């Protein structure tokens, strides 16, 4: 049974001294850190790595979820003290020398990342809409716009116009709401240091369907302002059947540089 080093995250080497104040969980073994030139690595030593290369165990939700949450918890504890580059869950190195060689190669990119994200936090923003409610509002708005004409129609013709509008609404609402969603995002993130899109699959058999999903980067000290801003946006757009959801602050997972660490 071979041993390996499990990598949680990286930080500037001078920041390692601040980690002595942290009390880390030790699910994977005691958490320690090593200086690798100008980069510090936060690690655990894994005595038996067979489980980490087993597809069966990674497919086991209980096994994987428990360890993934531990991985995230260690990163958050480090991030509460110092800048971090979060490693992907399950990142292993056979030796400290092999890790050092990678960090030497990626030093310049990591230095840029730490400079760009120091003192920053990531917020997750999701925008959903209720298709049925949105279609009803779209039809009513267009009925109101054409009220002078529709008001002169017989009951039967008025019914046919409404049915036509409802057919049109199924196609037009998504386009209109996606345009509105872009405007909402611009209003919410106009002062963000960075914004990136994220995937969000449809919710089957739900009256809440995704319009957009993003990560945004702001100073960690903006937490109360971001909560207030998001809350105001949620209240303002609720009558349209739109729901703004957010969470954070988090370490800058979505803004990681593309490095050959994982």
Overview of this structure, please?
- The protein has 262 residues and is α+β, with helices and mostly antiparallel strands.
- Helix content is 43%, strand content 23%.
- It contains 8 helices and 9 strands.
- The chain has helices at residues 55-58, 61-79, 96-105, 107-117, 131-145, 147-150, 155-188, 223-237, and strands at residues 4-12, 31-36, 39-46, 85-86, 92-93, 120-129, 194-197, 209-219, 242-250.
- The strands form 2 sheets. Strands 1, 2, 3, 4 and 5 form a 5-stranded antiparallel beta sheet that branches. It has a 4-stranded antiparallel beta sheet with strand order 7-8-6-9.
- A hairpin with a 2-residue loop joins strand 2 (31-36) and strand 3 (39-46).
- The chain starts with a strand and ends in a 12-residue tail after the last strand.
- The relative contact order is 0.16.
Short characterization:
With 262 residues, the chain is α+β, with helices and mostly antiparallel strands. The chain has helices at residues 55-58, 61-79, 96-105, 107-117, 131-145, 147-150, 155-188, 223-237; strands at 4-12, 31-36, 39-46, 85-86, 92-93, 120-129, 194-197, 209-219, 242-250.
């Amino acid at each position: 049974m071979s041993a390996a080093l499990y990598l949680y995250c990286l930080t500037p080497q001078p920041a390692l001294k601040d980690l002595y104040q942290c009390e880390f969980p030790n699910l994977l073994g005691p958490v320690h850190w090593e200086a690798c030139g100008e980069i510090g690595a936060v690690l655990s030593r894994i005595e038996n790595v067979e489980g980490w290369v087993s597809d069966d165990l990674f497919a086991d939700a209980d096994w994987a979820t428990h360890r993934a949450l531990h991985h995230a918890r260690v990163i958050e504890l480090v991030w509460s003290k110092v800048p971090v580059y979060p490693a992907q869950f399950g990142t292993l190195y056979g030796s400290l020398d092999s890790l050092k060689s990678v960090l030497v190669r990626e030093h310049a990119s990591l230095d840029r990342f730490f400079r760009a994200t120091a003192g920053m936090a990531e917020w997750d923003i999701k925008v959903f809409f209720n298709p049925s409610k949105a279609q009803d509002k779209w039809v009513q708005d267009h009925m109101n716009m054409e009220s002078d004409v529709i008001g002169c129609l017989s009951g039967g013709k008025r019914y046919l116009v409404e049915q036509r509008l409802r057919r049109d609404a199924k196609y037009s609402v998504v386009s209109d709401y996606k345009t509105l969603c872009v405007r909402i995002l611009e209003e919410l993130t106009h002062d963000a240091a960075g914004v990136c899109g994220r995937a969000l699959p449809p919710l089957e058999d739900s009256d809440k369907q995704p319009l957009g999903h993003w990560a945004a980067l702001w100073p960690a000290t903006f937490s109360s302002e971001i909560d207030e801003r998001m809350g105001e946006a949620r209240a303002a757009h609720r009558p349209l059947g739109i729901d703004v959801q957010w969470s954070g602050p988090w370490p800058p997972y979505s803004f990681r540089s593309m490095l050959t660490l994982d």
